[in-house]
Design brief:
Radius of gyration: 23 Å
Number of helices: 3
CATH architecture of the largest domain: Sandwich
Oligomer: single chain
CATH class of the largest domain: Mainly Beta
């Protein structure tokens, strides 16, 4: 490496950490954070973490979930967080004269949106099957297996025992992220949005990209539905900011989006795009300038159950449906006939014609891109 390259590299390094392979990431994360007192700085993905960055006592650790097939001493290295785009011509990995490997990592990676892989997906809820442990002790159930090529993730998340949540002030590098409270309640706090508040069943929030927030407390049996884009995104801690913060700016724009707190009890229902159905608009379409919309749909008060049918067509980037209550029949010339019960969901690909048949007590979450 030339002196010119040496100077360039030194000028663009932001931080360094020791990269450690972990056959059991959850156990290692618990050991370093709870037993040794290291603070979590970054973790991803939230539903099934495989990378975690921690700091403490003047050093930083980057834990990677990796199989134990290769001896750990051959995989330990130093990771340098850099302005990678400015280091033209340098390889991604260097080796010191004493044999220590050095990885050059991008400090501010661009948000990567994988090309969508359209698919028709029906996901049925099966009691306690399909759940796994994710970030902050939360339990996750994948609602879009295959993630449409990595473009979208939708999760059914629960906190069975409730109480204080072992969370910290954090933010996400995302294009879109929304959460609807399905059952129970959760107390949360958001940057520039004032004091902590409680989300109850039916309430919804839009979390704009990089807004700082924290989950504080949950009722036993809390359940939420979360949808995000892209499927794999980073969760980063902000230990310098305490929430609630002093500034109150509810209309602040974060990367082109505004924070939304939708309160179901105070929201009206209006005519949906098919006769016999009414929709409660969460306000996400307006807050994202049409990037996405989220509505909760039910039968109008004048229509009896099982008599309403809507014939529709979908031509957008995403149509995601989740049955909150009741049942739904779905028929499509391309994808056949399906019956969805409570906690079942589906994704309908663009170019699909389909008919919806309302069942008893139907309440349906619909998320569309574009809005």
């Amino acid at each position: 490496m030339t002196n010119e390259n040496n100077d360039s590299l030194c000028n663009h390094i932001r931080s360094a950490c020791l990269r450690l392979p972990c056959p059991d990431l959850d156990a290692s994360l618990t050991f370093f954070s709870e037993r040794l007192g290291f603070a979590v700085e970054q973790i991803h993905p939230a539903d099934a973490p495989n990378v975690a960055v921690l700091s403490g006592y003047g050093m930083r650790l980057r834990l990677h979930a990796e199989p134990a097939a290769v001896p750990a001493q051959n995989r330990i290295c130093i990771a340098l967080s850099c302005d990678r785009a400015a280091l033209v011509g340098l390889p991604n990995q260097l080796t010191s004269p004493c044999g220590v490997r050095v990885e050059l990592c991008d400090a501010e990676p661009e948000l990567h949106l994988p090309p969508a892989e359209p698919a028709f997906i029906v996901t049925h809820h099966q009691a306690n099957q399909g759940w796994h442990r994710g970030r902050a002790g939360m339990h996750y159930r994948d609602l879009i297996p295959g993630r449409l090529g990595g473009r979208f993730i939708a999760s059914h998340i629960r906190i069975p025992d409730g109480g204080n949540v072992p969370d910290y002030v954090h933010y996400h590098r995302v294009r879109l992220q929304m959460i609807l409270c399905k059952a129970g309640w959760v107390r949360v706090v958001y940057e520039d949005q004032g004091e902590p508040f409680v989300l109850r069943a039916g309430d919804c929030v839009l979390q704009p990209p990089q807004i700082r927030h924290r989950v504080l407390e949950a009722s036993p049996g809390l359940e939420v539905i979360e949808l995000g884009c892209p499927a794999v995104h980073e969760t980063l801690a902000d230990h310098a900011l305490s929430l609630p913060n002093e500034r109150h700016a509810p209309q602040r724009v974060f990367s082109g989006q505004r924070f939304v707190r939708h309160i179901a009890a105070a929201a009206p229902h209006t005519q949906w795009r098919a006769a016999g159905f009414a929709a409660r608009d969460t306000g996400i379409a307006a807050a994202t300038d049409g990037l996405a919309s989220a509505k909760v749909i039910r039968l109008t008060d004048t229509m009896p159950a099982r008599t309403v049918q809507a014939t529709l067509r979908h031509d957008g980037e995403l149509l995601f449906l989740y049955v909150l209550r009741g049942s739904l029949g779905l028929q499509s010339p391309q994808h056949g006939s399906h019956t969805l019960g409570q906690d079942d969901s589906c994704v309908i690909p663009a170019g699909s014609a389909f008919a919806l048949h309302a069942g008893d007590g139907l309440e349906l979450l619909e998320v569309c891109l574009p809005g």
